[in-house]
Amino acid sequence: MEVKKSLNNEEVKTPGQVQDIRKKKTIIGANVIIMILISIAIFVFASYINDRNYYRFDFTASGKYTLSSKTKNTKKPRSTGFYNLTTGT
Fold it and tell me: Where is region (Disordered) located (predicted)?
């Protein structure tokens, strides 16, 4: 099979070959866009999970930043609202 070459020594492509190349480039471009969107979705999901389940670890040998058991057992204060008896608001 003989390959035709142009004046600058490049292979001459038929219209069918050009369409095949365009299809391949379109498929590759679509694949790149899909992978970028999947990566963004994974990052957003991981950030959402991390935000909802925040926990801090203390890896110091002396436990410098660890709360005592007495502090851990205290209850969180309830939010308090103030009511004005004279105006009713």
Answer: 69-89
